[in-house]
Design brief:
heterodimer; A: alpha/beta; FAD/NAD(P)-binding domain; 3 domains; seven-stranded mixed sheet; five-stranded parallel sheet; 14 helices; globular; B: mainly alpha; 52% helix
Amino acid sequence: MYDTIIIGAGLSGLAAGIRLAYFEQRVCIVERHTTIGGLNSFYRLRGRNYDVGLHAVTNFAPPGSTKGPLAKLLRQLRLRWEDFALVPQVGSSIAFPNVTLGFQNDFDFFRSEVRRAFPAEIDNFQRLVDKLLSYDDLGGPLGGQSARAVVSETIRDPLLVEMLFCPLMFYGAPGEHDMDFVHFSVLFRSIFLEGLARPFAGIRSILKHLVRKFRELGGELRLRAGVSRLSTSAGEVRSVQLDDGQELAAHDVLSSAGWVETMRMCDGAVMPVKRPAGQLSFFETVSALNCAPKDLGCKQTVVFFNDSEKFHWQKPDELVDVRSGVTCSPNNFLYDEPAEEGQIRITALANFDRWQNLSEEEYRQAKSTWYDRLNASAVRFLPDFRRAVIDSDTFTPCTIRRFTGHENGAIYGAPEKQYTGTTHLKNLFICGADQGMVGIIGAMTSGITIVNRHLLRKKM
Amino acid sequence: MSPAEIKEVILDILSDIAPDEDLSDLKDDVPLREQLELDSMDFLDIVMELRKRYRVQIPEDDYIELASMQSTVRYLEPLMRDITPAKK
């Protein structure tokens, strides 16, 4: 009998596991896949290391910081700053036709960029910043205000509004067109006020530290252990049934599998809240280069691009929406030594249903076609790197579906979140994307928050 | 444990929870929250660490007693009187 079984060995599940194991619970994390990480993972292909999910860690804070999400997270996990060893970005930008706004891990620079490109809006921009700073972060109740409405009534120039929404949507909006203003505030702070960073070895070094810590504390991690069913009776989960038929018992179950996905596991349970699955998914191209990106003039860390004055955040009709995207070079962080090989990743919105409905042959063909189309679209906004490509890979909404279990390959889960983490069963809780936090630090914080709120206190 | 030993325990826990904070000038009678960057999650950790290390149970209604070092030591004294300090 376990104290807690955690479904999913992604960032939120691992962080939750560390908290529980540290405070002496018997914890088991069950993961369907052969590897850990979920959405944020890594793989090796033809001798090269690649990350999935993570472009950059947001919420950067330098060593010694006592405030902010990263400092809080490290304290909660009893990790040292050096364990993640985040290296700050070189510099990024938001590129629209004829206007580009640069940003760095120094907010004054971004402010000066807004002043340069939108001189008439600088006071309005400051008013927006003041407004979003007045919101309490992490786990506070939602204001229920449309971010589009709040931002548009503060900033007059619609182009600046679109340019602010573009990066925030790409890095964490689960629903189409708009998001809650509190969510907007959290993302704005994490990207512009705190900033971007990456460990030298990518997401694997973060995951490796989490797993090591979890195991040192006596936690048990089972890979290839998918959950097929949660047996329930009298308003409680009685046991967790694995794909291979094994049955595990626990006092509490914490699922990071997603809201809809978790509800579906519960036998006999009528879904208490009708809640649509997310619709927004990504297609990504990954290109290995024969030189460093900066040698080709690609000096930026991340470039958010959009090819018209209006930014569209919605499920595309086509397989991929190449009008807009995010390019990232994992090389362009301020490392002490150069990364072993140049890489460029480009991400854009994609339509899960259309990818899902392709035959195997069409799917293979489409990957190649859209690899070319998305890169062709992106090189309108960054130097053409294509002649330096020596190897490539792509992932599609189907890949995301396979590794996260999220319906529709929904990258940020369902649009409607369950902030409390509670369900209709008194010993079943959820964490991760559908609990409402996004980003690398946000995902881990989600696991911790739900553990603190529901799973540690009740045993006192 | 004597009040002085209990204070040492609390300082040790605080240095684990908040390794980047300077605890040397901590004033006993001023709320911890005003001197350190602590939030409710950190206060939960003080409680959980006391339970983990010394099996001291603090009900949620009593968390308020942990406001300052002085009030914490005063609150813990009867609960920890019979505990022998752990050897470091």
